[in-house]
Each structure stands twice: as structure tokens, then as C-alpha cells.
Amino acid sequence: MQNFPGVFSAVKKDGTIYYRASITHQKKHISLGSYPTALLAYAAYLEGNSLLTDPSLTFEDFSAHRALPFLKWVCLMNFRDNGLYFATPIYIRKNYFQYFLTPDHILKFDIDDLFYYSSHKIMQRGRHFFVADYGMQVNIMSRYGIKNYAVKGRDYRFVNGDDMDFRYENIEIFNTYHGVSKRETKNGVRYIAKIHINGNYTIGSYETDIEAAIAYNKAIDLLKKAGINKKFVPNYLENLSPSVYADLYSKLHISPKITNYLRV
């Protein structure tokens, strides 16, 4: 068999022979993937070499007929243009970076997040983006303090209307806590706590979102004591000491709509 530069044969557990392509550039050894034939692996090697040495090649030059997958193009082009190689499909721009899911689906992040996403692969399920972190699937929205149950437009919004733009300045959070919504009134901002039992019930109106979040938890406790065992999600207030939490909990008023519901 003819020997091709950058191509090495390997054997699967079932005895099938396949071929691995790799390239070394600026003392960096880069795997280019596995291929069923030596010719395909060599084509990947040649294409990788062209990407690393020819600055005229751009994302627009990619097509389905190329030997390398598109995400590897991103990695090689970033190495060529920015001098950094990442295993994830990141391309650095001025003051931000792009994370490519496909040629047409591109997420934007602040440079502050570069280290995290250079070591965490983003996966997609519908409109949800998540990473594997310590064996768990973590929604990337949680990095902004946005809970899994949050609703776009009600609890948060993308300022410029681009819901693929995850730069911090582009994400505005309205409601941090479950069951709490912010409302502008003639007397100023109020925070409304509501809970869903058989329909939505208002728990109360409060001066702060923390008070509303605690009131929501208090309503959950009352409902559970009355034998209503729905899977309510309580709010976790990590920066509040137990004594302060308990003091607010005891003082917060709960709407008669909730207490009357419990008497029925």
C-alpha cells in the first residue's frame, strides 16, 4: 500500500482497518479525524495543510464536498488566524468569539467565556443549548443566572433581538426567581409572586424580588402541609443567611386567596 504523509492505519475491535489523519503545524500536533480509506484520510491531510497555510480560504469556501468536516475547518482557521488551537469550534473576533454549531448556527460569547467553552462542547436540543459538566447536562443559560423554567420575553430577553448572541450586555434578566414577576406601577416597581395550583393564584405583591421569592416558598410550605403534593420548585436564595431568611419568612403576608383555597 502506498504511504501517504499524515496518514496512519488503525484497527477496530472487530478487525476492520481504518485510517487516521493528522498534521503538525507550528509544533502543534492536530488530529484530523478517522476515515474509511487512506485516500480520504490523505485528502483531509492536504485540505488541513491548505487551511493552515492559505489565508485566502474562508468559511464561505467550505462545501459538503470537502474532506474535512466544517467544525474542523473552524478549529484550523482559528489556529491559522489567531494562533490558538481549540478542540471546540471557536473562532475569535475582536472583543468576542463565535462558537459554530453549523455553518448557519453561530453563537456569540464574550471573551471572558473563552476558557470555559474551549473545554466544553456545546450541544443543542431544540432551542436549548447545554454542555456536559461533571457528568451533568448544564443549560448554558444558568451561567447568566437564568433558571431552566425561565421564559424568554417574560423572565429575560435578548436586547438586540438575536437569541444566538450570548454576550452579557445582550441579556437582560427581568425575573430571577421562580413564581416571581416584576411589575411597574404608579407607585414604583413591585414584585408579584404567583403559584399554579389549579390555575394561577396570586400570593402577594412585594417590594423586593427576594421577599416575593420567600413568599413563594412559604406558599409551597402551606400547600404541602395541607396535603397538596404537586412538584413545586422552591427558590434557593444562596446569599441570604438562615436567620434573615427566617425573619422575612415569618413576617411576609400571604394572600387570603391561598389560605381560603386551603380551607376548601
Q: What does it look like?
A:
- The mean pLDDT is 91.
- Helix 1 packs parallel to helix 2.
- This protein folds into three domains: 85 residues, no CATH class; 86 residues, no CATH class; 84 residues, no CATH class.
- A hairpin with a 2-residue loop joins strand 2 and strand 3.
- It is elongated and about 85 Å long.
- The chain contains six helices and 14 strands.
- With 264 residues, it is α+β, with helices and mostly antiparallel strands.
- It has a three-stranded antiparallel sheet, covered by helices on one side. Strands 4-5-6 form a three-stranded antiparallel sheet.
- 26% of the residues lie in helices and 30% in strands.
**Overall domain count:** 3
Main sheet: which strands, in order across? Answer: 1-2-3
Tell me the number of strands.
14
Proportion of β residues? 25-35%
Layout of helices and strands, plus pairs?
Elements: E1 7-11, E2 17-25, E3 28-35, H1 38-53, H2 70-82, E4 90-93, E5 96-100, E6 106-110, H3 114-118, E7 122-125, E8 128-133, E9 136-139, E10 156-158, E11 171-173, E12 180-185, E13 188-196, E14 200-206, H4 209-225, H5 242-251, H6 256-263
Antiparallel strand pairs: 1-2, 2-3, 4-5, 5-6, 7-8, 8-9, 10-11, 12-13, 13-14
Tags for this model:
three-stranded antiparallel sheet, 3 domains, 264 residues, alpha+beta, 30% strand
In short:
The chain is of the alpha+beta class. Helices cover 26% and strands 30% of the residues.
